[in-house]
Amino acid sequence: MIADKIRAAFDEASQRHTRPRQLIAERLIQHATSGTDFTVDDLWQELRKSEPRLGRATVYRSVEMLVNMGLLNRIEFGDGTHHYRVCGGTHHHHLTCTQCHCVVEVDVCLPVEQIRTIGSQTHFDIEGHSLSLFGRCEKCRSAHSA
Amino acid sequence: MIADKIRAAFDEASQRHTRPRQLIAERLIQHATSGTDFTVDDLWQELRKSEPRLGRATVYRSVEMLVNMGLLNRIEFGDGTHHYRVCGGTHHHHLTCTQCHCVVEVDVCLPVEQIRTIGSQTHFDIEGHSLSLFGRCEKCRSAHSA
DNA sequence: TTTAGTGCAAAGGCTTTGCACACCG
DNA sequence: CGGTGTGCAAAGCCTTTGCACTAAA
């Protein structure tokens, strides 16, 4: 379960159970459950509601840690902005609406043997890939169909 | 030819042939020819050698314009940095070395019918996609094989 | 001459860092 | 208590903006 993974990640990376990290973990679990993505600032604003003194830097530090541990996925948009998203582990990619920035998980992927071929052609040791699809979601299409 | 495309892009988007734009075009043609990618700052530094008074903002403005016209491709790295690259038009993707950041063009791509399927499943009007492969290039692998 | 395009410097946004303090164990 | 983790504010980066000026047409 994702909630356990998040808590385990904090445990593994640190020596103390602090209130800020508990709050961050809780909020991330909610995001994981609802499948919503967020910016560091989103997260900070949300957390500040219940803990006004929580520092922005703390949020940045936790997010960085979780990204390094592979629990949080950084989604880059073409315009240089980016969101984060809890990634439970299964390999998947994202389809983002270019208008409202909503994100949907998709399970398209590159054929494995194609990746292998590229690896041997280029003499690269291929470690990973990221695939982003862009388009307009149903809502935005109908809203702007005029 | 790519050189013509770059010049044509400047012509189309503007009314005057200025020295800064000529210099930028020239430099981009070189990058296109050698297949090297670059940051805005790289480009600015290079141009400053021959034209010390050339402003950073001018480079930013030109790069933005060319990205919008599809002639320059912004490559996002996982760590939030990004490079630009002259893209002659043919559809392709990039394989980047996670160690030295060198970039190779590859012609892998998602099967078209998969994209279509996703579109209808998600009710998105899919407009495009970006695919990045990461790995370690031959040089870096042998250098660090120890 | 006219005004698009430029250079400069200041302002902006996001992120990181330094440091004293708090608080977990 | 001891030291990790925190909050705060300052500093850093990269990028954009405002504005007076330059130089293409």
How does this model look, in words?
The structure is a homodimer of 146-residue chains. Chain A is an alpha+beta fold. Chain A is 47% helix and 21% strand. Chain A folds into 2 domains: 1-87, Arc Repressor Mutant, subunit A; 91-146, Dna Ligase, domain 1. In chain A, the strands form 2 sheets. Chain A has a 3-stranded mixed β-sheet with strand order 4-3-5. In chain A, strands 1-2 form a two-stranded antiparallel sheet. Chain A is built from 6 helices and 5 strands; from the N terminus they run ααααββββαβα. The termini of chain A are far apart. The mean pLDDT of chain A is 87. The interface between A and B is large, with 37 and 37 residues. Chain A binds a DNA duplex (25 and 25 nucleotides) through helix 2 and helix 4.
What secondary-structure arrangement, pairings included, does this model have?
The structure is a homodimer of 146-residue chains.
Chain A: H1 2-13, H2 19-34, H3 40-50, H4 56-68, E1 72-76, E2 82-86, E3 93-97, E4 103-106, H5 112-122, E5 125-136, H6 138-143
Parallel strand pairs in A: 3-5
Antiparallel strand pairs in A: 1-2, 3-4
The first copy, chain A, binds a DNA duplex (25 and 25 nucleotides) through helix 2 and helix 4.
Q: Concise description?
A:
Chain A has 146 residues and is of the alpha+beta class. Chain A has helices at residues 2-13, 19-34, 40-50, 56-68, 112-122, 138-143; strands spanning 72-76, 82-86, 93-97, 103-106, 125-136. In chain A, 47% of the residues lie in helices and 21% in strands.
